[in-house]
Design brief:
The protein starts with a helix and ends with a helix. Strands 1, 2, 3, 4, 5 and 6 form a 6-stranded mixed β-sheet that branches. It has 325 residues and is of the alpha/beta class. The longest helix is centred in the last third of the chain and has 29 residues, at 295-323. The protein is built from 8 helices and 12 strands. α1 runs parallel beside α5 (134-151), α2 (40-52) crosses α5 (134-151) and α6 packs across α8.
Length: 325
Amino acid sequence: MSNCKLTLSVMLSIMVSALVSAGSVIIFNPLQTDGKNIEGGLFNDIVSAELSCADGIKLVDREQLGKLLREKSLSPNGMLGAGEVSSIGTLLGADNFISGTVREKGDKYLIFVKCISVKTGVVKIKYINTAADLESAAGKTVQCAVELLKETPHKSAAPVKEQLLCPEKKRPAVAICIPEIHIASQRIIDPAAENELIKIFLQQKFNVKQLPPQLAVGKAGLLDNIAGNRTTLLKAAKSVGADFLVYGEAIAESSDSFGNYRTSRARVELKVISTASGNIIRADSAYAGAADTAEIISGKKAVQKAAAKLAAETIKAILIYNGGK
């Protein structure tokens, strides 16, 4: 019997790893049980164990989820709405939220599994009718959840890096400067917003020029000591052959903590200037949140997410403006 259990566990782990993209963060909210013969606690423990042992999944700790739900005066069981899921998922840095119900129907279990994408709000629901065997039902629930995770889109649109925007337009040269600060540390370190934009611009076949580092950061490395004002940066961008300067700043600050998780919120602001005319062709900003066991990393993640939100429209604005010249 133990060999059979081990085989089931290994098969489910392989299945989850194969179908779910690496690094997916999953919130598993214990399924609500309805039936006198259903051991709800044990059932949910088995499902949690099977989900957590897969390489392709990072399962948010149940205690952290429970604490957050209690603090928001939400039920720790049952099916939450898409709006609540989005709020909770953003705070815990999750991609998808799994919940559902288990009902006893004669000698069968009728199980409804619900998957909500935190980023898009897309909801997928499946149900299974299985024999009233706790371990078998839990295994089939995991399989059903995995299928839903595969079907549920993580993003409302294809990632910028996977599609070439305005492929018919010539790519100009750009220089990017977005220093950042995390309020808790009061210093600038490896700017995540700048790096994220550079990565995406390179993926979009742009010629990205390197600015002298001293233009971005002052002696003490503090936000107040940024030496490169717009005029200085614009001249530097032009001197290295950049057609456009993308510059701004990013700020991250810690918000709440849940168990071992620290959450942060970030704001990234940027402007795009033509080095030839000096015209500002775009100004924009974005917010984002993220969670991690390390506070500074949660801040970096939040900044990176906020920068990624700005990438597509910034690139389109540059290409459209450049195409008219």
